[in-house]
Amino acid sequence: MKRRTAEPYKIKSVEPLKMLSYDERKDSLKKAGYNTFLINSREVYIDLLTDSGTTAMSDQQWGAIMVGDEAYAGSESWQHLEKAVKDIYGYQYVIPTHQGRGAENLLSQMKIKDGDYVPGNMYFTTTRAHQELNGGTFVDVIIDEGHDSLLDHPFKGNVDLAKLQNLINDVGPEKIPYVCVAVTVNLAGGQPVSMNNLRDVYNLCHRHDIDVMYDATRCVENAFFIKEREEGYGDIAIKDILKEMLSYSDGCTMSGKKDCLVNIGGFLAMNDEDLYTRARELVVLYEGMPSYGGMSGRDMEAMALGIYESIDDKYISHRINQVRYLGNQLIEAGIPVVRPIGGHAVYLDAKKFLPHLKQEELPSQSLAAAIYLDSGVRSMERGFVSGGRNKITGKNNKPKLELVRLTIPRRVYTNDHMNVVADSIMALYEKRDQIAGLKMTYEPPTLRFFNARFKPLSSCGELMTITTSSATT
Ligand code: PLI
Q: How confident is the model at residue 380 (pLDDT cuts 50, 70, 90)?
């Protein structure tokens, strides 16, 4: 008999949850313009909007908060954080930032010139926005499998070396300031990159004198998949796999709000001393002194410890398996989800879930809204709306994948919460033909998904054309 395992922690402090009635949820959704980003968190029952900054910290981290050194310069807490990054990630130089996009801003400003190209294994919203703000053009060099939601492939985040080589041949290496490799790839469904591919990308880039900068936001999750799926790594500790992965890069941007197990923070790391010297100058302008970079001393203490906690093999195994616990229930029920289940989230394929809606009728946005209406579970659109517009033509980008992300915060929910989510999605799937499309009524100029507003396209003006109360009233 296969013995079951449990969470590698016990719960010391609880936060009560409340579920609004169906009518209250309907009001709240209307007030939010059918955009789950605009719903008040107290009106949400289970919050799967994001795994970013939503982690439950450990008692050790909360204890460390009390000893944060809040000095403006030379904080001891910074020394703890810097030591943790150098020790676990292996880079020589570290610049703290308030969160990941702070690091993206510094890196993009320092390295990208007008007319440059920045290849990456699928875009991330803020990463691409900073690249474009600095005159760069993002070029997607992920393998084609990364765009095929139902295809099972162990490393769907891999870079297509031929696509990368072709770009280098076409535009010349001097037009490519660096290649941005995300480990794992958020918008592909939290899909990992293999060690072999990371090594090959590094070697290819270095033959052309091009730097490789990782988006290391979920690098520990990537290391887990390498341990599980790549030959030769099954018996190696996560921390050693991680070190090897990062050794095939020249630096990274990091959102500490994910794999560093904290609610705020980030960093930019590199091995190039000149780049570090420039970053020390620039960080003062945008984030703060190089000894805090937008974080408080207590944030830095918590993050230093979070970095060590994140590489515990038992923690990361439980984390990924909880995501799978939800995903596998949906797969068994025949619901179209991105396969294989990725590291931080289960992604519903909204095109397949709502085949009666055209992409312009915003199936992902509608499905995210319908899930909230059904059960108070908050998810996130990752499709047409997040895709934004082409910066030159102004046309909608129309991404191939039209997804709804059910993102699992770290150490926050139990598997019973996952069951409630699974039940809601299954119930909605039964009545999927009743879910209407949406139309954007307000479109912000940048990162429109955060603040856009919508209205239902149905003749009755409702999102669900038959407004029966769901099982969870
Ligand atoms: O939210 P930030 O600024 O700490 O990090 C930006 C960021 C960079 N890269 C990747 C892969 C991310 O996933 C990311 C932020 N992600 C968010 C907020 C999310 O909900 O997925």
A: very high
Task: Give the binding-site residues of ligand 1, using a 6 Å CB cut-off.
Answer: 50, 52, 99-101, 124, 126-127, 182, 186, 215, 217, 255, 257, 266
| CATH T-level assignment (fold) for domain 59-310 | Aspartate Aminotransferase; domain 2 (3.40.640)
253 touches 218 (CB < 8 A)? no
C-alpha pair distances (Å), 318 with each of 9, 312, 313, 378, 396: 10, 10, 9, 22, 39
The whole-number pLDDT of residue 471 equals 46
> Coil, helix or strand for 211?
strand
What topology does CATH give the domain 22-51+313-456? Answer: Aspartate Aminotransferase, domain 1 (3.90.1150)
Q: Are 449 and 385 in contact (CB under 8 A)?
A: yes
Catalytic residue among 26, 298, 319, 382: 382
Tokens at residue 366, please? 């509608």
Domain boundaries, the chain: 22-51+313-456, 59-310
Span from the CA of 330 to the centroid of ligand 1 (angstroms) = 25
Residue 467 has pLDDT above 70, yes or no: no
| Residue 446: pLDDT over 70 | yes
Distances, alpha carbon 431 to alpha carbons 338, 353, 354, 467, in Å: 21, 11, 10, 11
Catalytic annotation present for 215: yes
The tens digit of pLDDT for each residue in 147-196 reads: 998 899 999 999 999 999 999 999 999 999 999 999 999 988 999 999 99
pTM: 0.94
